[in-house]
Fold:
Amino acid sequence: MSALSTGHHDNPGRYEIRLKGHLDSRWAAWFDGLTLPRDSDGTTIIHGLVADQAALYGLLQKTRDLGLPLISVNHVEPGRPAMPTIETR
Structure:
């Protein structure tokens, strides 16, 4: 059974989108107020609640437009601890 047939694509969920490179916090407004912590390994994690699958694809298009390499996209399971401690300049 595919994810599309289960109905999960219409539910909001928390996501972490990791990009190679650092984004300044001023980009948060462009990413609908999601958090943009920067990791000491030279990556930025766009993190927060995404309304549905269409909104997630919209975020991925924005990351493509920035030209920063995409490292990963992860759904954060409910009850999972917050993101690991990272450097936020």
Remarks:
- The first strand starts at residue 13 and ends at 20.
